[in-house]
Amino acid sequence: MDVFGSFALLLAFVCAVYAFIGGIAAIRTRHPLLVKSTRQAGLATCGLIFLATLSLEYLFFSDNFSVAYVVAHSNRSLSPFYKVAALWAGQEGSLLFWSFLLAVYVFSALIAYRNKNGELMPYVGVVLAGVQIFFLTLNNFVASPFKALGVPGVNGAMDLVARGDGNGLNPLLQYPEMVIHPPNLYSGYTGFTIPFAFALGALLARYPGEKWIHLTRKWTMIAWGFQTAGILLGAHWAYAVLGWGGYWAWDPVENASLLPWLTGTAFLHSVMMQEKRGMMKVWNVWLVFCTFLLCILGTFLTRSGVVSSVHAFASSNIGNWFVGFIAIILLVCLTAYFKNRDYLKSENQLDSIVSRESSFLFNNLILLVSCVAVLSGTLFPVFSEWFTGDRISVGTPFFNKVNIPIGLLLLFLTGVGPLLAWRKTSLDSLKRNFGWPLLMGLVAGAIAFPLGVRGFYSLICLILCVFVASTITMEFYRGAKVIRARSGASFLASAVDLTMRNTRRYGGYIVHMGMVLIFIGIAGTAFNKDIQKEMQIDSSMQIGPYSLLLQNFDTKQEKNYTAERMIIEVTRDNKPVMMLYPERRIFPANQASGTMVAIYSTLKQDLYVVYAGQSPDTQAPVIHVYLNPLVKCIWFGGVVVVLGTLVALLPNRRAVLVLAAVQEPTRVKSMAGTLTPSPTLREGHD
Amino acid sequence: MIKGRGIFLATVLCIAGSLPLLVSPLPAQQPSDRAHQIGGKFMCMCGCNQVLSQCNHVGCTVSTSMLKEVDQALARGDSEDAITQAFVQEFGTKVYAEPPHSGFSLVAWSMPAVCLAIGLVLVLFVIRRWRKRPAHAVSSVASSSGISPEMLERARLRAARETQD
Q1: CB-CB under 8 Å, B112 with A658
Q2: pLDDT tens digits, B109-146
Q3: Of B98, B120, B137, which one is at a domain's C-terminal end?
Q4: Domain end (from B98, B116, B146)
Q5: Sign (positive/negative) of CA torsion A511, A512, A517, A522?
Q6: Which residues of chain A lie closer than 8 angstroms to B102, CB-CB?
């Protein structure tokens, strides 16, 4: 099966090269048969990558320990659930997984547009094939997951061998979320290839109008949704597995996943300027280019060993390939831009500084500044070593100090932006839209201050969260009220109807509400408490309202590991709450160990208990207990964000022609005819 | 008289009771808390990429010994600066949890602020420039169709309101 997989990958590489070169020839000659055959080659590339991926999974499930990658990341007692996850546990397999997910996107795009956009698709196909060639080069010639296990023979040649059992999967990865976190994150990274291919293809083809924006909108949202889910799942995994009481450590690999998310978010906002007003064409194209480049940069950071991280793969020379690829992409993008920049000329015109357009400009600025801050902080150790010879670390305190004010500014714009009208917002409208929310925010602050919310950032965050939540609630309330008055339906049904009439707008509001919840959860960090203590059996400790009694300390034997665990009874006001079992697992296959945190989670706070090992002096078990307020808001907010994204992806229930409702029918008729070309005035649903 | 003696005795007892607090060292917990606080300014050198006071992953002996060093230095009466210097000498500049506010490290601190300032100037410049542009399309439409500017403005505002995302 390993030979089959290798052969499938090699054939996929050949097909991708044909799709690339044949595609360029097809663009030049416009020969229909050549266009068709290159498209088929693109599809064949994807099919062959699927086969290669399946064959690697087969090798895992059949415990084929003659393949080096299987030996390194699996063993016989590994559960089938984690044998799926072993595919992306190492450098070689995760690169194949990259190719696989990219193939899913490429296949879907080629099928979805097989009979559409005939002028544009050959260009898109060439760009996609180019990206696939890079990853297939790595899969075939640099980091093949199908390498057979060998030992040097007597005559110097390598003899093939097979091991009886493998090294097993990294214990940190033996957690349910590791089966879904990487696929989500990778789907985000790879998904941004589609908007990139369309943007570059449209620029190269000088494809007219904003059509490429319309074509790629949903792809961008899908990629963004996956990236968001991936980041949050990763944060939850770090929280539940790493045992340090937090969920985001500003680790370089975590930062790498945040960078394209920030520019992708900026693009999702600024793209509306181009759709509605034909503005910011150059900016949007470069945002898409930068998002894709940051995806590749993130992959480079994770795999090159250039920055140190607990999440990174073993350092290797693969980084040079990524640097080369980034340089090529940048060169191609710059060339395409300078050659065809007149195609991107916009009719930028603003009526007022107090308008939706201005808020998008500021939103993009803040997101980009945040991206620069995270990127420069992540790469600063490398730069400091280059310039001064000393590597200066940049840890959590720096990122928090820099990003918290930026995040709060962004939160403020989240509340303000959607309520500003396109073109111009009147003073009356400002008062009507912001009066109550502002008051609500200030009242919330006034209530919270005497209750102990004294930290400057926590207080501002709380005020802004209430302000933004109020603006969103009012938007839903006003719209639902109108529908309810007309239809007589219940308020909830009216709100659902309202959402389904303009999924993009109200889906966006739901996403914003999810972000508010996430911010509330983050603000709770200011009130975290923790205690570390040696415990004897039957001894107890107190944290916040909880009392923890160590009932026992034992060892249990499982199929794949041995666990040392504490058996702790949690009580509150002398009433039993629950039993917690924090563990330390030792995996004999690779002699690695890992924690299993025990969490008692409520809406208000998490009681987070870590078994921190045995004291070297007394051999007594050491417990580290955290009381983390409002953490649940983060996970719940994440679910709301993903739900909002899904809503925004749905088609609108019906389109309402705005001009049909204008009162002066005769005059409006003539206006309608005159103004039809403007997308702003055409439909009320978008 | 009896009342005055009672107050005198109570005062003497209070002072006597407070003396041990004044002369004895601080409670054993305090230096540890201080060490924990100072530990927030350094990275753990075990390679976990976490701040020293937060590193508690299973089997990490480095963070324990580093915090112990801080504890001992505090017990000797070393200042925070002296502890920082000692750690930098021992581990190099990679021990900082955040770049120091001096020398080349100022680049890291100033980068976001400089970017924000430049970006802000650019955005304001762009808004100013775009606002100056005449709305050719709208005026030509108004003049050719014979619609009054007021009505056109009203319709435009309504359309804008109803098409907002």
Answers
A1: no
A2: 999 999 999 999 999 988 888 887 665 544 444 444 55
A3: B98
A4: B98
A5: positive
A6: none
